[in-house]
Amino acid sequence: MRAFTRGLIGIAGFLALWELLGRSPLLPADALPPPSLVFGELVAQLTSPEFISHVVATVLAVLIAIAIAIAIAVPSGLVLGSIPAVRHATRAVIEFLRPIPSVALIPLALVVLGFGPETKITLAVYAALWPILFNTIYALDELDPLLVETSRVFGTGRVGVLFRVALPSALPFVLTGIRLAATTALIVMVSVELMAGSQIGLGYFIMEARSGPGRMDQVLVGTVVAGAIGVLLNSGLERVRRRWVAW
Fold it and tell me: How many CB atoms sit inside 10 A of residue 174's CB?
């Protein structure tokens, strides 16, 4: 309760500072709308089916991207972490691909995949892969050899050790990687929607709001909603981690 109260005080202080800056004569009137105007516009947008469709499109695409990234990264991490020869053979390729920003691949993705939702989902999957993959690999590095030897003494094969010993031991690391990957996927998703000419999503809503006469209150509405989605994703995955791997 004390931490919750301090969090509320921090949020209240941030909003008060934002309100003062938004109404200050030091800034142009339309440069930084105060939160009183932004949240009024937020309430109005939440009753708009069009805005809700943008939010749903972004959230659904993020969830799909996370699911695909998990399906690819966890098995790949188990293989790379448990078979040193494969890990060493692929290290150079992985270290080359990992630092490439997803937004730098937008032109290539547009040429190959077009302007559909496949482009933003693919780029979000690419960005979300790495935290899950490396957390899975590092988890296997921390695996107690005594557990492996004990399971083998009882007749467990290589595949059985992988799924009965290695994967449960790696689960806390994997969930941490998924939590990091979720926020990364959201950032990339909104960025691609904003930069790649998407026709739906929060990024597209922000792009439309800033064009023409420029509605900064709507731009900040999209930004606030994107931040709220990120907080909900992070909090939900943290609860899952505490529930599943409280030990």
Answer: 23
CATH (one of 1.10.3720.10, 3.50.50.60, 3.30.420.250, 3.60.21.10) for 37-245: 1.10.3720.10
Domain boundaries, the chain: 37-245
CA nearest to 197, candidates 106, 64, 122:
106
The Cα 227–Cα 206 span in angstroms is: 13
Output the CA torsion 67→120→198→56 (10° steps).
10
Evaluate whether 198 touches 204 at the Cβ level (below 8 Å).
yes
By three-state DSSP, how is residue 144 classified?
A: coil
Positions in the chain whose pLDDT score sits under 50: none
Q: How far apart are CA 242 and CA 82, in angstroms?
A: 26
| Predicted pLDDT of residue 113 | 77
Q: What Cα–Cα distance (Å) separates residue 10 from each residue in 6, 13, 231?
A: 6, 5, 15
- The DSSP annotation for 55-115 comes to HHHHHHHHHHHHHHHHHHHHHHHHHHHH-HHHHHHHHHHHHHHTTS-GGGGHHHHHHHHTT
pTM for the model stands at 0.84
Structure tokens at 167: 């994967």
Q: What was the pLDDT predicted at 63?
A: 93
